[in-house]
Amino acid sequence: MKKITSIFCALVLLSSQASAASGAFVGLDYLHAKTINKASNNSLSGPIGGDKTNDSSSGYGINAGLRFDPLLFYISGEVFYENLNSSAKGFAQNNQNQGVNIGLNERFGAKGNVGFTILPWLTPFVTYGVARVKYDGDQSSWREAPLYGAGIIFDIPATNFSVKAAYDLQRINLPYQNAQSKTNLGVARVGVSYTF
Predict the structure, then answer these.
(1) Quick one: CA torsion of 153, 159, 160, 165, rounded to 10 degrees?
(2) Which end of the chain lies in a sparser environment, N or C, as judged by fewer CB atoms within 10 Å?
(3) pLDDT digits (tens, 9 = 90+) for 71-80
(4) Using 50, 70 and 90 to split pLDDT, how confident is the model at 59?
């Protein structure tokens, strides 16, 4: 009987702590972005098909959303803005010249997170969403694509603050000198959020 009572008390305590974390939140992130670009071109002009370039950069992000913590589950939806600062070298060209650089400047979007508490205040989660990315090359414009990833959130006991670490991946097809760049954008982030 003592074991059952102890388990019941632990579940009540966890659910009350989780409920205290529910509400609107704002956050600030430090980002590390890595881009891998691959030229897709079958013609004899423009970039050499299959040529690859990449870049790593640091930036920042801000986010806001709603968080719900029913029992041991974690559910949140958020909107975000991220300054990526990525600029990869241009592709080698069929005419032996170097193409213009490929820059991913910033992105904004929305995503949902779902997780399950494994330890008090510690919750792994998965992410799915969509983001618009601003790019520069021989053209400048915006491209929209889905993103997916995973992360972990640690709710700091006796406060409304949380620390979150996450990684997401986005695959984007960008126009590049009458051809295409198949770009993988991976973003790792560590951030702090405050739940009201």
Answers:
(1) -20
(2) N
(3) 889 999 999 9
(4) very high
